[in-house]
Amino acid sequence: MVLGASIGGLFAARALSDTFDRVTLVDRDTLPETDENRKGVPQGRHAHAILPAGTKWLQETFPGLLEQFEADGVSVVREPDEMHFAPGGHLLSQKGRRRDPIPTYQPNRPQLEGGVRARLRALPNIEIIDRCEASGLINSPDGRRVVGVRVVDRDGGAEREIAADLVVDATGRGGRTTRWLADLGYDQPQEDRLAIDIKYVSRNLKMAPGALGSKKVVIVGACPGRPTGATFLQHGDDHWMLTLIGYGGHHPPTDPGEFLEFAKPILPPDVFEVLCAAEPLDDPVAHRYPASVRRRYERLERFPDGLLVFGDALCSFNPVYGQGMSAAALQAEALQDALAQGRDQLPRRFFKTAARRIEVAWQMALGSDLSLPEVPGPRPLPVRVLNAYFGWLMTAAEHDSALTQEFVKVSSLLSPPTILLTPATIGRVVVGNLRRRPPAR
Ligand SMILES: Cc1cc2nc3c(=O)[nH]c(=O)nc-3n(C[C@H](O)[C@H](O)[C@H](O)COP(=O)(O)OP(=O)(O)OC[C@H]3O[C@@H](n4cnc5c(N)ncnc54)[C@H](O)[C@@H]3O)c2cc1C
């Protein structure tokens, strides 16, 4: 049984379908037949990019899905000059040829979720039940194993029980398992949390094809002194989504005129000019995101058999780094690996493997947030040293396409950050920064 049929639940179900005879997903929402937004996934109205690490998993797990998106008109980024990527105040080099064979596909969020859901529905051992809310867990008489779920159908009827060999909680960042565990007499996991108080405001726009030249995506990250940013994403030929973000005290407005004004100091002038001529397709909508939260289930001494926690319920990342769905793919890999070793002590082995797989993403998101003086929180020496190094690296990467490619591989979760700390890379960073120094007078 998988609770929640959003990206996390769908990815978990796909991993389970190789091993279990029958996998049932329940979601309390009405799941749409077409690519519509839905109430249970309000973030679907905002820019959603899947990083190459997630794309790679989709390619391997759902052959033909990404090609189908492209055939349906979804925009695909393959070359460096199709992307304007400016994290931390540095516009990274757009020159050279991309060596990475994984392109960036840009379906919108409902399209991505709908495409994966349709593939899962086609598998003979998967059932998806919508309008069905999970209300609690059922424990074995000795209290050591979860043996099922209590659910309530939204179309009426009393609470009913469904037996299961394994229950996966993928109900999102609310993290129902923490409460359910307490009901069953277990300790709650330790929570790592960084308060960031981010607000997203987004709207869809129609623009003439080619209005931004070769560009298919413009990402301008926040930087010290300007804790605001923008993602301008081409979904289809003439369809774009603009998402503006701001950290606490610098939130974007939803009034259409003020929304445009807010974008002005963030976007490059030529992009802003094109934006002003674009035709709005809807009103700006907002989403508040208070804190990144990671629940350390791998550290609990006691945990019932027959239960896993997955997706945002396990770890919810600051969305501006676009990691959440790819982290769910990394967790799905962890689940596949854990199941390959059998079902004995599955929760302990899954939580440990998943914790290792998402560690880099978590540390990178935390480190980047703490490079902004506007984000409150302790900054131990290693964080300050690494942030200083990443600042130099991005400075050098402005004119060094090889460095840019290495940085992008790490931020896309394809390569470990250690590739940025080799003597050769450090040498390029030093040379790149020395070259930028103004000549001595
Ligand atoms: C504003 C914003 C922008 C984002 N941008 C990106 C991005 O660019 N790239 C990226 O990779 N990630 C992004 N993310 C993160 C991404 O949306 C999540 O990581 C992803 O949706 C995986 O989440 P999930 O399936 O675990 O949970 P969710 O997507 O939150 O889904 C939870 C599901 O559980 C269901 N549910 C809840 N309670 C119950 C219950 N009791 N019973 C049954 N069903 C229930 C809900 O209806 C829903 O379908 C963004 C997040 C936000 C907030």
The gist of it:
By secondary structure, this protein is α/β, with parallel strands linked by helices. It has helices at residues 7-17, 52-61, 65-71, 109-121, 176-183, 256-263, 269-277, 324-340, 346-370, 381-397, 401-411, 423-436; strands at 2-3, 23-26, 76-77, 83-86, 104-105, 126-129, 132-139, 146-153, 160-163, 167-169, 191-206, 217-220, 228-236, 239-246, 279-280, 285-295, 307-309, 315-316. It is globular, with a radius of gyration of 22 Å.
How would you characterize the overall build of this protein?
The protein has 441 residues and is α/β, with parallel strands linked by helices. It folds into three domains: 2-40 and 50-71 and 108-191 and 294-366, FAD/NAD(P)-binding domain (3-Layer(bba) Sandwich), CATH 3.50.50.60; 76-107 and 193-289, 2-Layer Sandwich (D-Amino Acid Oxidase, Chain A, domain 2), CATH 3.30.9.90; 381-436, no CATH class. The chain has helices spanning 7-17, 52-61, 65-71, 109-121, 176-183, 256-263, 269-277, 324-340, 346-370, 381-397, 401-411, 423-436, and strands at residues 2-3, 23-26, 76-77, 83-86, 104-105, 126-129, 132-139, 146-153, 160-163, 167-169, 191-206, 217-220, 228-236, 239-246, 279-280, 285-295, 307-309, 315-316. The strands form four sheets. Strands 4, 11, 12, 13, 14, 15, 16 and 18 form an eight-stranded mixed beta sheet that branches. Strands 6-2-1-10-17 form a five-stranded parallel beta sheet. The protein is globular. The structure holds flavin-adenine dinucleotide (FAD).
